[in-house]
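Per reviewer request, we include the raw input and output of the structure prediction for the construct analysed in the revised manuscript.
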Amino acid sequence: MPVVGMGTVSYPRAEPEIFRSAMLEAIAVGYRHFDTGALTLYGTEKPLGDAIAEALQCGLIKDRKELFITTKVMVRRCSAGSRASCSSGVSEVKQSHEMILSYLLLF
């Protein structure tokens, strides 16, 4: 896990294209750890996925495995003793990342 990471929250929320461009620049200058949040929390998963896809296409990174992506699952998604309800929240986040962010390293 990289020591330095790029947080992806912005307030007010950035337009997806502006955010995608910022994340692409972060990859270009060397960031390899990105911390996202659930769809309703940050709303940055898809633009980050788009930036990663572009970084792969441009050759800024050679493989998705070069990046360490973390996220959060809201506690309200996890009922007491129910691992399945917590997993469904993780599943939603994974799906939002499309192919580029099809797995998470930490949540």
